[in-house]
Amino acid sequence: MHTRNFALSASRRAPALSIAHQRLATRNPRNVGAAWRQRLAALCLAAVAAFAGNSARAQAAPKPDWSLADMPSQAGRIFVVTGGTSGMGFEDAKALAAAGARVVIVARNPERGAEAIAKIRADDPDAQLQFESVDLADLSTVRALGARLRDSLPRVDGLINNAAIMAPPERGTSPDGLEAQFATNYAGHFVLTAELLPLLRRSEAPRVVTLSSIAALRGRIDFHDLQSERSYEPMVAYAQSKLACLMFARELQRRSDAAGWGLQSLAAHPGVAVTELVARGPGLDSAQGQQWASRREHYQTAAQGAIPTLFAATAPEAVGGTYYGPTGPMEINGPLGLATVPPAAQDAGVAARLWSVTEQLTETRFPAGAR
Ligand SMILES: NC(=O)c1ccc[n+]([C@@H]2O[C@H](COP(=O)([O-])OP(=O)(O)OC[C@H]3O[C@@H](n4cnc5c(N)ncnc54)[C@H](OP(=O)(O)O)[C@@H]3O)[C@@H](O)[C@H]2O)c1
Predict the structure, then answer these.
(1) In a mutational test of the pocket of ligand 1, which residue from 277, 299, 324, 331 has the highest number of ligand atoms less than 8 Å from its CB?
(2) Is the pTM of this model over 0.90?
(3) pLDDT digits over 164-211, tens only?
(4) What is the DSSP string of 7-72?
(5) How many CB atoms neighbour CB 97 within 10 A?
């Protein structure tokens, strides 16, 4: 991300310099030759800077065919995966356990938790897995989970903020009075991350990976109606929640850098993957569900959709503050790469405002500044 900004500023500097040199040449004709030489030098400098920016970006781009075979051993590492009972979260838990990690699967339903663990252990009897129940939309349960994990785990090396619901047809509210998608997808993870920060800080190389979506490209943070009280459009509220997740991931990296928490905070999205998200949201019989089903052959499997997250969570070359996803048409599928950061997610001022509004709404404070 820093590299992208660097490339941008390099290309912006070139026209500004050349205009200054044109003015100089116009005022004093004897300077025309010198001015053109300077202009040429400035353009060369800008080209070198842009090249440096591009090569830095190329370094940050992951290997397009990165796969589970590239994942280093995770033996001795402890991960918490929200929504690990189905879809991408299940694939995350399975792959991390297969690589030797101890994985805490966090979701609402203990029966689905037991089924997920049994399924993984059927292939990998030694998998170190446990299930912890939480409703991310109910912040009292998130705080209770935080307390349980702080009592029982020595540290957390990786937190994967993956659980979500998408586009329930009717507006729902959480026990804390928040819109259901805002609460589950974003606010619950905001609080969980704050709860687990002390455990993350005990790790030598802690990572937080937060799931966004290509839906974030259509998202907007509507501070006048953050909880969709005035108008509820299911996909608009989903897009806002996923944009908020992406902004959170980037802002968490900035705050960690400023405060010395030592985190790598990364974001990932799966493209479009065949999971339970549509069936449990708008429903497969809905117009949206039918439209989704009609394009199924273009979608990723859940295992393919999990690759950007697993890269972000484990690859030594993954870079904090970066957003990973598939790079095929419209980023729906395809080889792993850098995902498009929507312009709305690039506004650090809005991200900081969202952070402080969320602290107020959830009555949660991350520790201030001190290292
Ligand atoms: N599938 C896609 O095409 C797609 C596209 C873009 C982004 N994503 C993102 O990818 C992530 C994974 O989604 P998925 O497609 O794998 O969905 P999924 O199959 O529906 O899985 C969602 C998981 O979240 C858990 N969950 C839902 N509400 C919860 C709550 N209130 N508290 C705790 N856990 C809760 C569910 O577990 P329980 O029901 O057992 O609690 C389940 O394990 C999400 O962040 C989603 O936004 C998906």
Answers:
(1) 277
(2) no
(3) 999 999 999 999 999 999 999 999 999 999 999 999 999 999 999 999
(4) HHHHHHHHHHHHHHHHHHHHH-GGGHHHHHHHHHHHHHHHHHHHHHHHHHHHHHSPPTT--GGGPP
(5) 25
